[in-house]
C-alpha cells in the first residue's frame, strides 16, 4: 500500500512537471511570436516611413522645379507682352501721325524738289517738284468748279496732299483762287494749323491737277476771311 502511494505521488509529480514544461514551451513560443510581431510592426513601419520619405524626397524636386520653369517662362511672356505693347504703341503712333499729317515719303516717292523764290514775306520755305498729275474722272472741256464737294475740289485735295505732308482726309482747304488759265493756288493747313501751305496747281488735260510749287507759310493769311 505504501509502494502504491509512493508511485501515485511520483506519477502526479511527473505529470505536473510535464505540464509545467509544456506551459513553459508555450510561453516561450508565445513570447517569440510577440517579439516577431513587434519586430514586423516596428521595422515594417520604419520601412514604410523610409519609403514615404523617399517618395516625398523624389517628389520634392519636381515641385521645386515647377516654379523655376514658371520663373523661366515668365520673363519671356513679359518680354513678349512688352514687345507686343511697344509694337502696338508704335503702330498707333504711326497711324495717328499718318492720320494727322500723312506720310511725306508716300506722297513724294521719286519726287525731286528744288528751292524756289518765295512770293512774299509770309513764306518760310518755297520749293518746286516734278510731281505727276493726280488723275481725273472728268471728261470733255474742263472748266474749274470751285464749289464745295465738286469733282474739281476732290481732285485738288489729292494734288495738295501729294505735294505736302498733309492727310487728304483731314486737312482744311481755307482758300482757292484763280492763278491764271487752268491754274489755281490754294491755302491749306492741318487741323491744328501748325502746318500751313500755299500750293500752286495746274490743270493737265485728261490727267487732272498737277502740283507745281509749294510754299510753307508763317501764318494762315486767309483765315481772316472766316472770322
TrEMBL record:
InterPro entries: DUF1510. Residues 62-72, 102-123 have a biased composition (Acidic residues). Keywords: Membrane, Transmembrane, Transmembrane helix. It comes from the Bacteria. Residues 127-217 form the DUF1510 domain. The chain crosses the membrane at residues 23-45. Pfam families: DUF1510. The keyword Transmembrane applies. The keyword Transmembrane helix applies. Residues 49-138 are annotated as: Disordered. Residues 89-101 have a biased composition (Low complexity). This is DUF1510 domain-containing protein. It comes from Virgibacillus subterraneus.
Amino acid at each position: 500500500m505504501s509502494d502504491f502511494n509512493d508511485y501515485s505521488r511520483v506519477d502526479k509529480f511527473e505529470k505536473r512537471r510535464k505540464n509545467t514544461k509544456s506551459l513553459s514551451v508555450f510561453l516561450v513560443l508565445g513570447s517569440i511570436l510577440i517579439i516577431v510581431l513587434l519586430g514586423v510592426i516596428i521595422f515594417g513601419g520604419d520601412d514604410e516611413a523610409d519609403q514615404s520619405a523617399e517618395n516625398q524626397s523624389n517628389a520634392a524636386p519636381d515641385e521645386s522645379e515647377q516654379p523655376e520653369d514658371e520663373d523661366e517662362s515668365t520673363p519671356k511672356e513679359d518680354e513678349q507682352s512688352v514687345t507686343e505693347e511697344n509694337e502696338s504703341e508704335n503702330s498707333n503712333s504711326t497711324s495717328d501721325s499718318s492720320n494727322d499729317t500723312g506720310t511725306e515719303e508716300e506722297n513724294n516717292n521719286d519726287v525731286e524738289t528744288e528751292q524756289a523764290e518765295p512770293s512774299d514775306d509770309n513764306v518760310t520755305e518755297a520749293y518746286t517738284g516734278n510731281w505727276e498729275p493726280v488723275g481725273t474722272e472728268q471728261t470733255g472741256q474742263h472748266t474749274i468748279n470751285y464749289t464745295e464737294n465738286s469733282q474739281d475740289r476732290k481732285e485738288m485735295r489729292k494734288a495738295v496732299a501729294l505735294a505736302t505732308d498733309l492727310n487728304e482726309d483731314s486737312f482744311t482747304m481755307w482758300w482757292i483762287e484763280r492763278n491764271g488759265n487752268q491754274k489755281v493756288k490754294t491755302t491749306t493747313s492741318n487741323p491744328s494749323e501748325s502746318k500751313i501751305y500755299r500750293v500752286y496747281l495746274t490743270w493737265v488735260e485728261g490727267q487732272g491737277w498737277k502740283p507745281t510749287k509749294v510754299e510753307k507759310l508763317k501764318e494762315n493769311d486767309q483765315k481772316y476771311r472766316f472770322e
